[in-house]
Design brief:
Elements: H1 14-27, H2 35-40, H3 44-59, H4 65-79, H5 82-94, H6 99-103, H7 116-130, H8 136-144, H9 149-171, H10 181-185
């Protein structure tokens, strides 16, 4: 149970209700409001800022979604953030991440299932997740793989934002909702760094 009570699917507070309606407008009327949003809704201005940052980062970035989802999954794996993993595993598969890549993600350095751009992005994700940030070498490796400044910003922002997501999820002890059991099983705790 989270440290902050979950708001109802239809909260009474007008600003939060409008934000939930915005999410449903984008996702469909039958969309079940994730527990993360039901916690964030306690601070409507912060939740709105979250949506205004997270959704464009997810949907309007120019770097391949597949690449960013690989980074998000690796960061979740490293930090033991099951909620983030469970919610992003279906997104990663829909973006083109293969089952083989998911199964070998914890050992990507030894795996043959990742190309040079994916390896450079995963290195960045690991460095940002461990902190304090990406090394000059990781940034240069991305440049060598053809990533220009806009892409570098998008990739560092992606890795950094999802570290923030993980810290929030851990701080409030937000666990995956029912229905995510299969996704959670795929996040082998033995693979945590």
């Amino acid at each position: 149970m989270p440290h902050v009570p979950l708001l109802p699917e239809m909260p009474e507070e007008p600003h939060t209700r409008a934000l939930f309606d915005r999410v449903r407008g984008a996702m469909g009327p039958d969309f079940h409001m994730p527990d993360l949003y039901r916690v964030l809704g306690h601070a409507p201005a912060m939740f709105e800022a979250w949506l205004d940052f997270a959704w464009p980062l997810r949907q309007r970035a120019k770097t391949p979604r597949k690449l960013r989802e690989l980074m998000i999954l690796r960061g979740a794996q490293m930090s033991g953030t099951t909620y983030e993993w469970a919610h992003h595993l279906p997104m990663a598969l829909a973006a083109g991440v293969s089952e083989l890549q998911i199964d070998s993600l914890a050992n990507w350095k030894q795996s043959t299932h990742f190309d040079a751009q994916e390896r450079a992005a995963l290195e960045l994700a690991e460095e940002v997740t461990r902190g304090p940030g990406a090394s000059k070498q990781a940034i240069e490796r991305l440049r060598l793989e053809g990533f220009e400044e806009e892409a570098l910003v998008e990739l560092v922002l992606t890795a950094s934002f999802y570290v923030c997501v993980g810290r929030l999820l851990h701080s409030f002890e937000i666990q995956p909702e029912p229905g995510y059991e299969e996704q959670v099983k795929r996040m082998d705790p033995a693979n945590f760094d």
